[in-house]
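Hey, does this match?
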Amino acid sequence: MSFYDEVIQADPRFHTFDCVRDMKLLEPVTRAAVEAIVADAAAQGIRLEVTETYRSRERQQQLFTSGATQLRTVGVHHYGLAADFCKIIDRSASWAGDWQFLCRLAEAHGLISGGDWGQPTVAHTFRDFDHVQRVSVADQNPLFADNWYPDASYTPTTA
């Protein structure tokens, strides 16, 4: 049984339309990496706040319909393997400015950044600078098909 099977599917918010920021719905390795990213950013003078962890199929469809995402169906958030952030500037949430620091922090903690999708030398048509995930782009399809879920030893940066 995976974290997805045991924790996420059993959570009462599994079908919610609401934004979920609960760190307990991040798979444990992902959660530890996200917490380390927040701490390392703070050490650099950047205050990060997690804005979304788990995302239901219903919320994903709602975001797609409104044009807020390019993914119609579930993404890595649905599996507790991704988080989005904002920067706190003057006590307000901000997504402005340079987010390259997040690419470096994600890689340092074994995650993939939506800024370069773990492929910094590739030209990307879609970038999601405030997003990190613990699944390589190559491994997303088996995850989405419910054929695979990463174990604790999986590292997307070497997959």
